[in-house]
From TrEMBL:
Gene Ontology biological-process annotations: cell-matrix adhesion
GO cellular component terms listed in the entry, alphabetical order: extracellular region; lysosome
Keyword set includes Transmembrane: no
MF GO annotations: calcium ion binding
Domain of life per record: Eukaryota
Signal peptide (UniProt feature, chain positions): 1-16
Keyword list, A-Z: Signal
Native organism: Candidula unifasciata
Name of the molecule in the record: Uncharacterized protein
Stretches of the chain forming a coiled coil according to its record: none
One Pfam family it belongs to: Ependymin
Amino acid sequence: MFKILSLLFLVGVTYSQIPQPCFSPPLLSFVAIQYDQERVFFRQFDAAYDFQGQRFAFYEREDSRTTPGRQYYQIIILHKENVAYQYNRQSKQCTKSQAGPFRPFGVPPEGRFEGEYYIGGPGETIEAVEWSDRSDVRRENWLGVFTRINCYPVRTWLHNSQTNETVHTDIFNVVAGVTNPSIFEPPTACRNATVSPGFNKLAHSLRGSYRH
């Protein structure tokens, strides 16, 4: 009888350790590096996330080593207003488009557990969990990596099967809270911007964390 109870206890402990879908803290500031496989370039952003306000903001960092004439952007996505602004900091031009549905940082309830591992070396490791939207009948269009304890975003991989475009985003230097609230304020040039049809491609690839 003791052996049976011990076995049941071990099974219960093992089962309780299986990661469950999660959502990230409601306010975050972070740095995001995006690699667009189709356009073959990197973009690095200072960024912020507001769950309650359903807002994302990205301010691209300039790199003097890049190709002369490259354009740098500020992206502000306000889902409650269904508006996404893309401001070109070189031309001072702003385009306005639909924000689309809000998708918070986190793992959807139907997310598929792919594995867990440690990031870093001895003495500085962080346990991370990888999820996908893969099913038994189709390949994944989304992969997401989050820390196990607080569900902080670490990495996302998005594939658009219609355009065959793949975008990788690495997230680091995550801080709880919004350290620069003004990052959500659209530039003056955006006040009179006209709405373009459809979704802004760059904003669309950055918003949220789990699928198109």
